[in-house]
Amino acid sequence: MPNRTLRFAYTACAAFAALLAFLLAATAEQTVHVLEDSALVWITENDGTHDTDEVARAVQEVADTHGTAIGYSVLDVNDPSSLAHLYLAVSDPGSRYARWLDEGYPSFGRAFTVRTHPMPEFGDVGPNGYYLVFGGPEAEQALRTALAEHGLFEAPGSQTTQLWHFLTGGHLLHLVAVALLTTVTATGAGVLLSTRDHAVRRLHGRSYPGTLAGELAGVLRLWAVALPVSAAAVLLLLGGYNGWNQIGLYTGLALLFLALLAVACLVAHALCLALVHTTEILPALKGRLPVRGATVAVHLVRVPVLFLTLTLLGSVVTTAQDVRDQRLGLEVVEQYGQTSRPALSAHYGWADEGAVDDELGPWLRQADIDGDMVLAAQLHPAELLPSAPAEPDAPAPGNPTPGNPILLVNDTYLAQEELLSPAGERYGPDRAVRLLLPASAAEHAAPLTEGVAGWLGANSAPESVSEVVVRPAADGQNLFTYGAGERLGAALPLLYEPVVIALPNGAVLSDSGYVNHLSGRQTVFPDPGVVEAFRTRNPEASRYISMVEPLSTSARTTHARTVHALRAELFNLFGAGTVLLLTAVAACVVHVRTRAQEIFARHLSGWSFPATHRRLLTTEAAIAAAFVGWTAWTTTETEPVHAAGIALASLTLTLGALAYFHRRVVREGASQA
What we know:
By secondary structure, the chain is an alpha+beta fold. It is built from 21 helices and 17 strands. The longest helix is centred in the last third of the chain and has 44 residues.
């Protein structure tokens, strides 16, 4: 049976695999909605000749001909963060797809629900959108052909999200890295700690292949117990969590991650065992290790972990700040009741820009004139001032730019939000475009005025208001952005002393400009009934508006996801710290076992602890200094401080482990004297 460290490593493979599969399925479901294995046909172009009832019948015919099921997936208009609808065409009434129509779709997670409907009912939302083919490639191609006969096509070059895309960044990628490093490091440490046992086997004539085969047989015996126990525990937890929904998909993901981690551990096991076998038998019986090879192997893991820990710590700090800002913002947003933000559909909105502008532009203009719409758009300084840096924290070349944020609003915004002049008077509607500057931005009035005039030239309608009037704004004001700063990465929906560009209602923007602000999530309606009334009056135009979600609902969903990401990154940071500890222990084991007699002799001679271990401590200090220096050279802001903290923690772990092994060497040496 493997030693305790190896047992931990190979058991951790199963635990990490179960956790990764769970998080991947739960995370992906909120984006792809339906986790079942299917081919995706994304229709974004149509020639306007289709009849939705005929399209529904054509989809049903394809499903019947190929003996499969086809679904049409769309987010709910009013609750897109947690609800989707799946319209199904099913050929076999006894299939599990038919049961979805009767019993509902078996969602994996609790945070997202998919409601099922018969395909003929999709007339109010189709035909553009996502078609899911739960069958072979023949059915997929037949569906494309059938839809093309009704003037429905995929846009060339369109891409869809796959499960593996969720592992290319963020906390899931970090967790995969932590899982690999933890299990591989523990495996290597377990092999190195068994040096004496391996020497005994070699003394009895066991070859490297024989020793490796015996070790792997022990791993198989361990898994024969650990895997069934892990599977039973996971089944029990999943049964309570979701009633074993999507258990087949989850099992496949878990086995895939288990294979990945297990192969990595087995390779590390074989390489470390080969490294141990390079030491002569007699020195190995005393616990001696191959110094150079083992040291290189330890630091090949230790150095990447330092940088991974730096990334994780930065992510934790940033995410924690976002959680704090979002919590404060949520308290503000909840005061606005049912104020909602419509969004442009990805299935229609970009396929025919002219049609979208013609359908939605005049309506948005009229809503602006009637005071039913609030415009709030946070602009980057580079959108107004060519000399402004593209990155927020980069120095501006030539003329300096104001550090104030820039907020574009309409007169309805000024009616909803209080914006005061230095005299304490509230700004209201006006016929001119106004540039409202706090004292901190007053010196930049000329370039800002020029930038606003240029922006108006690119975004305004012909014969619209072009005069820009500069007015002062009171200092120290916080203005609500209605969440407009999300596109710039702002978590707090408040701006301190912004530069405000106030547009008269309906007198400036072109149809395209109105639609652009709608697609940028910069248009909100205090009364969502205005949008619903428009959707009711104009069924065709309503297809362009995919959702009308209250700001509070969106803010709560975003906050919940950020909290989840923070918890995941904290777990990853703990895992990276564990790997740092394991590598510190491994480095100390290699050092102490190689120089045990020398360490004991120096202790008897009265050498100090730092002098006794100066080689290891010098190496560790050099790595820490290089790590901090490289970070300070290549990054800015808080990263060097984080790197210094990580380096200090790493040195502390090494010193703690070294002190423990030092006392052990002294105690064993004294007992043998």
